UniProtKB/TrEMBL annotation:
Region called Disordered, residue ranges: 104-144
Protein name in UniProt: Sec-independent protein translocase protein TatB
Primary gene name: tatB
GO biological process, one term: protein transport by the Tat complex
Example of a GO cellular component annotation carried by this entry: TAT protein transport complex
Membrane-spanning residues: 6-22
Family membership noted in the UniProt record: Belongs to the TatB family.
Keywords recorded for this protein, A-Z: Cell membrane, Membrane, Protein transport, Translocation, Transmembrane, Transmembrane helix, Transport
Annotated InterPro entries: TatA/B/E, TatB
Pfam families for this protein: TatA_B_E
Functional description taken from the UniProt entry: Part of the twin-arginine translocation (Tat) system that transports large folded proteins containing a characteristic twin-arginine motif in their signal peptide across membranes. Together with TatC, TatB is part of a receptor directly interacting with Tat signal peptides. TatB may form an oligomeric binding site that transiently accommodates folded Tat precursor proteins before their translocation.
Regions annotated as coiled coil: none
Length: 144
């Protein structure tokens, strides 16, 4: 929560607090603030215990951290420590480096870089040649 606050910012806040509240009222203000934080924490803990007791024994292992969407999805998809869908095996078998390299695609049907489903398809027109009237531009399935 406060990982991006540096020492200079904390020092500035302390100096401002001393200037605004004065050195005689600052200890009382800190004491009141800490008491308020303790009351809020005890209220939250009591509320959690009340919810757990009301849910009953079938939810005895319920954790409120499981309500975080990331944790919930991970737990529902992966189980507790199981891998029922085989996602870990798929993750281990995927070689991301081979997908991300800049090598051109292997030729398919004698043409490199594009996929054709019929062998008699004409080769695409070159990029620099103008189109004839009524001629449709070449369609690249990889570009769509």
């Amino acid at each position: 929560m406060f990982s991006d606050v540096g020492g200079l910012e904390i020092l500035t806040l302390i100096v401002m607090a001393i200037i605004i509240f004065g050195p005689d009222k600052l200890p009382k203000l800190i004491q009141d603030t800490m008491g308020f934080i303790r009351k809020i924490r005890s209220f939250a803990d009591t509320a959690k215990e009340d919810i757990r007791s009301e849910l009953g024994p079938e939810f005895k292992d319920f954790e409120f951290e499981d309500l975080n969407p990331k944790t919930f999805v991970r737990k529902q998809l992966m189980g507790d420590e199981q891998d029922p869908l085989g996602l870990k095996g798929m993750k281990d078998s995927l070689d991301i480096r081979s997908v991300l390299d800049d090598k051109p695609a292997a030729p398919v049907n004698g043409r490199a870089g594009s996929v054709g489903f019929d062998k008699a398809a004409p080769a695409p027109a070159s990029a620099g040649a103008p189109l004839q009237p009524g001629e449709r531009p070449p369609f690249d399935p990889d570009a769509t």
